[in-house]
Structure formats: C-alpha cells, structure tokens
Amino acid sequence: MNYNIAVLPGDGIGPEIIEQAKKAITAVGKKFNHTFIFNHALVGAVAIDKTGSPFPTETYDLCSSSDAVLFGAIGDPKYDNNPAAKVRPEQGLLAMRKELGLYANVRPVATFSSLIDKSPLKKEIVQGVDILMIRELTGGIYFGKPQGRSEDGNTAYDSCAYSRFEIERIVKLACEYAMKRSKKVTVVDKANVLATSRLWRETAVNIAKDFKDITMDFMFVDNAAMQLIQFPKKFDVIVTENMFGDILSDEASVLTGSLGLLPSASIGLSTSVFEPIHGSYPQAAGKNIANPLGTILSASMMCDLAFNLKKEAGVIRNAVEKSIEADYVTVDLNRSDPKSTSQVGDWIADCILSI
Ligand code: IPM
Ligand code: MN
Predict the structure, then answer these.
(1) Does residue 184 share a domain with residue 230?
(2) The ligand 1 atom nearest the CA atom of 97
(3) Residue 171 falls within a domain, yes or no?
(4) Catalytic residue list contains 142
(5) Does the beta carbon of 158 sit less than 6 angstroms from any atom of ligand 1?
(6) Residue 90 near ligand 1, beta carbon < 6 Å
C-alpha cells in the first residue's frame, strides 16, 4: 500500500533527526513491501525566512492531504532574544495545531532499563515507570479569547475556556487508551479554583460511566506535579488541559532521564502529527550529534496510530532498543565512544532490515 507522509523538518537539529527517521521508515517499506512517499514542506523559522509565515498555506495543504505528518522541531534563538518580533516560529506550531485540529497530544513515558542510571531520580522510584500523558492541545488558555492588553497598556489578560464537547472528546480518548493498558485514568485539574476545571470533572465523571472497567481519579495539578516525582509508578494514563499538560508533560519527560528518546503523537481530526518531544536544540544544529531516537520512535508511533501497521511499529521500536543495548548511541547517552546522528540512523535502518 502507499502512504503519503508530509515531512516538516523545521529548525535547528530538525532536518538531521528527520533524515534518520526517514531511513527507518524506508527500511520498513522495503522489508514489508509498503511504499512510503515523503513530501517536504516548511515550518517554523525557516518558513518565516522563506515565506514570511511560520505555517504557510502550502504547508497546511500538504499536511491536510497527507496520511500523516512527520515533524522535527521549531525555534530559533534569533526570535527568543527578540521580544519585539511580530512573527514567531512558535506561532507556526499553534497554527498547525488549530488548523489541523490536533486536539490530543499523546506522550508515552516509559523507562528503558539500560538507561535507568540516567534518571535524576533514584532507581527504586523510576524503575518500571510507564505513563501515558494525554494533553488537550487546541483549547484552554492557549487559544481563549479575549486575550490582550487594556487601552493604557498596563493590564494584560488571557482567557481559559473549555466546552463540554472538547472535554468529552479528550477524556474519551484517554479512557480508550487506558482500556489497552492498566485501566486507570487520572484527570488532572484545579477544580478547587477554576470553573473550567469543574466542568472537566463533571464531564469526566459522565464519560467514565461508559467505561465501567476504568478506575478514574482526580488530582489537583499542584499535587500531581509533586506526586509525579515522588510516586511516578502510581500513574497510568494522565489526561489534562492544555497548559497543565504542557508543564506536566515536560516534568514527566525527565523522569526516565531519556528526553532525547521520547516520541509524541498529536492526534488530529483527520491527519495526525508525529514528533519528538525535545526542541530544536540550536547549539547542536548541523553538527551531526543530536540524538535521533525520539524522532525514530515517533515514526514508530506513526506506523501504529496513523497507518495501523502494528508489526512495523514494533520492528522500529525493537531496532531502537537494540541500538541502546548495543550502546550504539549519540553523545548524550555515551560520552566516551559516541556515534553520530547519521551513524545511529544507518545502524537502525540496517537493524530493521535484519530483524
Ligand atoms: C510544546 C511547546 C509549545 C507549547 C510552545 C513552543 C508553543 O512548549 O509543544 O510543549 O507550549 O505547547
Ligand atoms: Mn511545552
């Protein structure tokens, strides 16, 4: 079968790591007799430089007409250090989320036993951690209106809004994922303060009635931030609103000490986007040193969730695990005998073909 993949390398290390994921996907195509067609488009700072927009219409058109989107990273220090810049790369990301209706960001956080010593936490606390963090991505304070400044410029405001429909959609998705795992969902909110959080609780309780086997509990976000560090093993599926999810998913990502390894999927209304969770790491751009494993694992998630190619997804994941076991990894994981980004990508593609 043919699969059309929109490839958006973006900024910084994006192009280098994306290249390695393409090698893995191509190897899977060869092994299992699928045709993967890659079409490239611009996003982020490179898109601003060339077109003036961080998410140009041509990029939207390509994404929405593809079967899936493989995304690298966006962000450039020239914008971070310039608060006056009118157009910013991050706006491209938010526009992509809104325009493609990417309502759920799904991030698995699990330990790789051979990397357990990289965790900043004690081994006993993190060994066996297996969390699925689900963040609502197109609502809440990120997109609420009104937003802006008062006429005199001395007051600024953002609005947080959620509809029952938006909450139902994401809590249902969380319950569906939990059914394939240990059937536990933790809804994180701030219902002791926020009206939106109270609607989240009310709605989540109703959705849970349709999932009799699911145990659902509720936790305030400040408490969740603490418990994620103290007792990470007690969580299975976590579902939360946009801003809380932004913060907690970064927190969860460092538990296992393998930030460069974590993939994510942003589930869309028709097309979904797959990307590593790390950023554009501009200091490493062009040096062939960045860890490509998060992007390669995102390609595995793409095979699984967008194409329903479970076996193929497993083979990619397996090849990644083998590269870690063989210690054939980049400098962030092996200081004394590091391999380059492209060496790791080649090794994994070969491994896929030989498994
Ligand atoms: C993320 C990022 C974005 C967000 C930024 C770059 C707008 O931090 O994907 O988590 O806050 O959602
Ligand atoms: Mn973030």
Answers:
(1) yes
(2) 12
(3) yes
(4) yes
(5) no
(6) yes
The DSSP H or E segment spanning 108 is strand 104-110
212 counts as catalytic: no
**Count of residues for the chain?**
355
244: containing domain = 120-256
Residue with the smallest CA separation from ligand 1 atom 5 is: 90
Residue 281 maps to a domain: no
pTM of the model: 0.96
Closest C-alpha residue for ligand 1 atom 8: 246
* Residue 251 in contact with ligand 1 by CB distance below 6 A: no
Which bound ligand lies closest to the C-alpha atom of 76?
1
Q: pLDDT tens digits, residue range 255-299? A: 988 788 999 999 999 999 999 999 999 999 999 999 999 999 999
CB of 246 within 6 A of ligand 1: the answer is: yes
**Residues sharing a CB contact under 8 Å with residue 264, sequence separation 6 or more, in sequence order:** 105, 106, 107, 274, 275, 276, 277, 298, 301
Question: Hey, whose CA ends up nearest to atom 2 of ligand 1?
Answer: 246
Ligand nearest the Cα atom of residue 98: 1
What does the pLDDT look like over 285-336, one tens digit per residue?
999 999 999 999 999 999 999 999 999 999 999 999 999 999 999 999 999 9
250 among known catalytic residues = yes
Ligand 1, atom 6: nearest CA belongs to which residue? Answer: 90
DSSP helix/strand/coil, 130: strand
Q: Is 3 noted as a catalytic residue in this protein?
A: no
What CATH number did the domain enclosing 232 receive? Answer: 3.40.718.10
Q: Identify residue 125 by its one-letter amino acid code.
A: I
Say if strands 263-267 and 35-40 run parallel, antiparallel, or are unpaired: unpaired
The Cα–Cα gap between 329 and 343 comes to: 9
For residues 63 and 246, what is the distance between their CA atoms, to the nearest angstrom? 23
3-state SS, residue 46: helix
Distance CA 165, CA 101 (A): 14
* Rounded distance between C-alpha atoms, residue 119 and residue 110, angstroms: 12
